[in-house]
Please model this.
Amino acid sequence: MQLKRHIDSTLGSGNLREAVRLPIGEDLNEWLAVNTVDFFNQASVLYSTLMEFCTPATCPTMSAGQKYEYRWADGVKIKRPIEVSAPKYVEYLMDWIEAQLDDESIFPQKIGTPFPPNFRDLVKTIFKRLFRVYAHIYHSHFQMIMKLKEEAHLNTCFKHFTMFTLEFRLIDKAELAPLGDLIESIMLGWNGGALINKEPVKRNLRSDSRCKTEAKCQESFPS
Ligand SMILES: [Zn+2]
Model:
């Protein structure tokens, strides 16, 4: 898949600013689609390493610090928001995203098949929900992430996710508040041109973008 190769090669160059930009001549929806699949895969791989530590006992609610709590509703099966534990929330969330990605009327597999008119809104909802997984990980499990020595990987994935989100205005500002400071530091790096990594970002992605893939990136925030 051509777009995928483009993402990999630009990420390989280590410049995330360049990696998120719509390649010249490419279709915006196509670009949103291929990246959405990637970001979903990254977040689910990251969360899966924490699953044994994120339990109904440790995380009875889906929170992002003390000020933010999320309730689940998908608008179809669960219309009124329900309070569930963080692992249950993430399970609902990931299952919901997976169902969207698998729906050919939303994410057409064949090149040239039109995307639905509300495609961008749907992508925005997916991003808003993926952000909550990051917010929960940073607020509730960062100690464990450090123990597992995954912080550089987490930071790189989140930085890439944030830069893409900002480039295409995919999440409302109020929704980003739980990680506002972190995002600000990413923005500073962006504007200050400090985002050129010293080490090339290594990624190992299978060609089938709809499969769960192990995405490895090695890099940390500029402090
Ligand atoms: Zn948790």
